From TrEMBL:
Functional note: Pyridoxal 5'-phosphate (PLP)-binding protein, which is involved in PLP homeostasis.
PANTHER family assigned: PROLINE SYNTHETASE CO-TRANSCRIBED BACTERIAL HOMOLOG PROTEIN, PYRIDOXAL PHOSPHATE HOMEOSTASIS PROTEIN
CDD domains: PLPDE_III_YBL036c_like
InterPro entries cross-referenced by the UniProt entry: Ala_racemase_N, PLP-binding_barrel, PyrdxlP_homeostasis
Family: Belongs to the pyridoxal phosphate-binding protein YggS/PROSC family.
All residue ranges annotated as the Alanine racemase N-terminal domain in the record: 28-227
Pfam family, one: Ala_racemase_N
Record keywords: Pyridoxal phosphate
Protein name as annotated: Pyridoxal phosphate homeostasis protein
Cofactor: pyridoxal 5'-phosphate
GO function terms (MF aspect): pyridoxal phosphate binding
Modified sites of kind N6-(pyridoxal phosphate)lysine: 36
SUPFAM superfamilies per record: PLP-binding barrel
Length: 231
């Protein structure tokens, strides 16, 4: 068995066990394999082992690998520059990192040109970290309101990147906060806002994230091993 196959089985087992513990259905958790720095060959192997969705954080990497990787849904999970939207608008299934209105306007414009609706998640910087992108919790409602005229964007949920803590228990509070906001927005039934996906949890903290209500986890290292940024 290859290490990729073994790692995927392992992650799936951990999803299963975590769900069992708290009475959630494992099938409700979408696993996104994060493939930044991972070459097409290894991505294709993961797809052969049942991975259906992959996450990249750089537009350039999507462009580079796009033709060599098929039968998979691409998710843009990293910071997106407005001038790069045009390159990925016809390639990605979902953008997880919507965090400002001019980006939303550009996505809307490009989606319209391609006659498609783009699914997005609003990125929230729950822990208020200086170094991270995303809206403050207090800005989310106003942001959703300002997006209402943008007919080619469908908000599908919220995303966050928790601070890295050796002990994932230390970030539980942030997941709790975002889940509460997710539920609060859901009942408001805003136009073109459907709170379906809560994208939170990475290799180090996905179990805690699932316990707190995540239904979309983004796992890189846990599947492909540690990343080599020098290649
Ligand atoms: C790299 C990355 C991940 C995956 O991180 P791992 O710790 O390797 O699982 C998840 N989400 C985002 C936004 C990332 O950039």
């Amino acid at each position: 068995m290859t290490y990729i196959k073994r790692n995927i089985l392992n992650i799936k087992k951990e999803i299963y066990e975590t769900c069992n513990k708290i009475g959630r259905k494992p099938d409700d958790i979408q696993l996104i394999a994060v493939t930044k720095t991972v070459d097409s060959e290894r991505i294709n192997e993961a797809i052969m082992q049942g991975i259906t969705d992959i996450g990249e954080n750089r537009v350039q990497e999507i462009m580079k690998k796009y033709d060599d990787v098929s039968n998979v849904g691409w998710h843009l999970i990293g910071h997106l520059q407005t001038n790069k939207v045009k390159y990925i608008i016809d390639k990605v299934k979902m953008i997880h990192s919507l965090d400002r209105i001019n980006l939303a306007e550009e996505i809307n414009k490009r989606a319209k040109q391609h006659n498609r609706i783009m699914d997005v998640l609003v990125q929230v910087n729950v822990a208020n970290e200086e170094t991270k992108f995303g809206l403050d919790c207090s800005e989310v409602y106003e942001f959703l309101e300002r997006m209402q005229p943008l007919e080619y964007i469908q908000v599908k949920g919220l995303m966050t990147i928790a601070p890295y803590e050796e002990n994932p228990e230390d970030v539980r509070k942030y997941f709790k906060t975002l889940k509460a906001m997710f539920e609060e927005i859901k009942v408001k039934k805003l136009p073109r806002v459907e709170m379906k996906y809560l994208s939170m949890g990475m290799t180090n903290d996905f179990k805690v994230a699932i316990e707190e209500g995540s239904n979309m986890i983004r796992v890189g290292t846990g599947i492909f091993g540690s990343r080599n940024y020098n290649k």
